[in-house]
Structure formats: C-alpha cells, structure tokens
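Encode chain A's predicted structure.
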Amino acid sequence: MDIIANYGTTLVLVAALFGFLMAWGIGANDVANAMGTSVGTKSLTIRQAIIIAMIFEFAGAYLAGGEVTATIRNGIIDSNAFADTPDLLVLGMIASLLAAGTWLILASYFGWPVSTTHSIIGAIVGFAVVSIGPEAVQWSKFGGIVGSWVITPAISGVIAYFMFISVQKLIFNTDDPLNNAKRYVPFYMFLTALVICLVTIKKGLTHVGLHLSDGEGILLSIAISIAVAFAGWIYIRGQKYNPQDDSKMHFANVEKVFGILMVITACAMAFAHGSNDVANAIGPLSAVASIVASGGEISSQAAIAWWILPLGGIGIVIGLATMGEKVMATVGTGITHLTPSRGFAAQLATAATVVIASGTGLPISTTQTLVGAVMGVGLARGIAALNLGVLRNIVVSWIITLPAGAILAIAIFYVLQACFS
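Encoded structure for chain A:
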C-alpha cells in the first residue's frame, strides 16, 4: 500500500507509457491481420490500408471502446486475492502491459501473426503466479483458450472453404462469369454487411448509448445490409469493364467486382476491431489508474479516464503505420495467393466466426480465426496452394505466445518490485 501512496502518479504515468506500447503492438500485429487480406489482394495499397485503419480503428476505439471495462482482462485472475496487497496488482498490471507489448512488437518484427489477447493473458497469469500463487489464477479459463487454438481456425476455415466453393460454382465455373458476378455479388454484399453489422452492434455499439435488444439489432443489421446490397448493385452496374483486362489476367473483370467488397469489409472490420481489441491495452491500464485513484481499493470494474481511450486509439494507429507491413505480407501473400474473391471469402468467414463466438461465449482470437479462414480458401484449391513452411512458423508462434508473455512479465515484475520497494 505504501508504494501506491508514495508513487501513485509515477505508477500511472509508467502504466500509460506501457499501455501505449501495448496499443502500438496491437496495431502492428492485430490490425495488420485485419487489413492483410485487402492489401494482399491488391484491393488496397498499404498506404490506403493505413489511412482506413487510422480513421476506422481510432473511431472504433474512441467511440465504441466502452465507458466501463473489466479491470482484470477476461477474469483470468481473481482480484479478491489481491485485496490486501493492491500494490502487487498495480505492479503486475504494469509488468503485463510491457511484457505483452514487447512480445507483440517482437512478433511483428518477424512477421508472425499472434494473438494480442493471449499475449496479455499469458503476462497476467505469469505475474499472478509469482506474486500471490497459483490459486490467484482461474485455471478453468485456460481450457477454452487452448481449445481456441484448434476450434476457431477450424470453424473459420470450413466457412471460408464452402464460401469460396460457392463463388466458384455460381460465378467462375460458368459460361458467363462477369454477368453472374454482377448478379450474385450484391447477394454476397448483403451477407458481408449483415455479418459485419452483427459484429459491430454486438461488440461495438453497446457503449455509445445505442442499447438494442437482439431482435432490434438483427432487424437494424438486415435493413443496413439491404441498403448496402442495393448501393453495391448500382455501383457494379455503373462500372466500366474492359474485355482486354481479361486477356492480361484471367477473370480480371470478375475480380474487379469483388474488389469493392474487400474495401467495405476492411472499413467495417477495422471499426469492430478497434472497439473490441483496444480493451487488451486499456483494461490493465484502467485497472492501475482506478486502484491508484481510489488509494488502493480494488473494484471488479472501473470507469475509464477520459485520456485512456484516445491513448489506445493513437497507439494502435501508430503501430500499424510503423510496423504493420510484415504481418500484412504474411497474412496477405505468405500463406497462399489471394485474389479479391478469395480474400472476400476469408474476411467474411472471419467475421461470421466472430459472430458465432460472440453468441456462444467461445473464447476467440481474431488472428487465429483469420489465419484459419485464409487456410480454408487455400485448401479449396488443394494442399499445394498453401505455404506449409509459413504455416508452421505461425503455429509455433501461437504456442509460445502464452509462455513468452508469462516469462517476460515475471522478469519485469521483479525489476519493478526492486525499483519501487
């Protein structure tokens, strides 16, 4: 308790710095995942992807990131265990932010798409075990986390596989692919908009004063999706298609029709991602600010200070702009060759899996979901279409994320204890 009383302001400033670093890591890694398929399919340039992410990620984080957040991320540790030693919880949360941020930036440097959620969870578990003991951790939560390594990529992979097969049967393997693309792509636009609206309304807009029941959310999503499909139908028919383009690249005009879908998906997924995953950075930071402000009292939830959401949003944007390129290349071109139609199938499968997970409470990593979807699209063209060496590196990075976060957090926690005691 003396540490909080004597160094309260310093602790909040250090937590803010490390929270910014964590947000930077989220931008470099997770946001690059969300934009990777759009860049890989050449629907967007890297500069355009960064501009879209800057606008929509920041808007999602700032407008819909939440007025209230759980102070202990995902309830992975029991906050009551720290009731008598809140200073340990403050130091541990600061150590967790630095550990998870460091790991994310390291993974981004090597181009590994890893889970930001698993990074912070591993870090929090690491410091909890060494500060209080194994009893401070709710180990039952771990089964779902480990299971998500297999379950979520499998679900998104299956959805992406069948989505791309349907595109092949309805459009590419027909006598008139371009006209069939004009006919069916508005329907795919409806599906895409519906899924993304459900993601955004379910995960993003509950804290903007828009409190909708499940039924109202579904009706609003359907109405918006019909409008998007109609606007898409008008846009597609207004586009000029040059037959000469097909001689340079087979189905170039058909892929041009799918290109607009990728841009819509990129904007909406960036907003949904900003509103959801900024919590990985601001959750522990809010915990520190709340405990220090209350003089050591630990509450299960804490109001977010006015400066925390902008800090997280700015960190995410800077992370993508400075370090996002390598992870975007891994997801967009490293796993398998993507075209706009394949990228669309992967992005839609990712969003659909997030909706399924939200409704069932399944623990989920957006990163692993997207990688699974890209794999599913690749498998639709045969195992030879996948770069197994890249996939091996990705899976290894997933497995070592939890222990890496834990080991870094333990080391940093001991250093912080030595500095402040």
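The longest strand covers residues 68-70.
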